[in-house]
Amino acid sequence: MKSHKTVSIAGLGAIGLPLARSLDQGRAPGFQLISVNSRDPAKAHAAVADFAAKPRVCISASDLVDADIIIEAAPAAAFLGIARPAISAGKTFIACSAGALMRNIWLVEEAEREGARIIVPSGALIGLDAVRAAAQGHITSCTIETRKSPSGWLGAPYLAENAITLEGLTEAECIFEGNALDAAAGFPANVNVAAALAMAGIGPLNTKVRLIADPAADRNIHHVVVDSDAARFTMTVEGKPSPENSRTGLLTPLSVIACLRSLHETLRVGS
Ligand SMILES: NC(=O)C1=CN([C@@H]2O[C@H](COP(=O)(O)OP(=O)(O)OC[C@H]3O[C@@H](n4cnc5c(N)ncnc54)[C@H](O)[C@@H]3O)[C@@H](O)[C@H]2O)C=CC1
Ligand SMILES: O=C([O-])CC(=O)C(=O)O
Question: Does the record bear Endoplasmic reticulum in its keywords (predicted)?
Answer without folding.
Answer: no
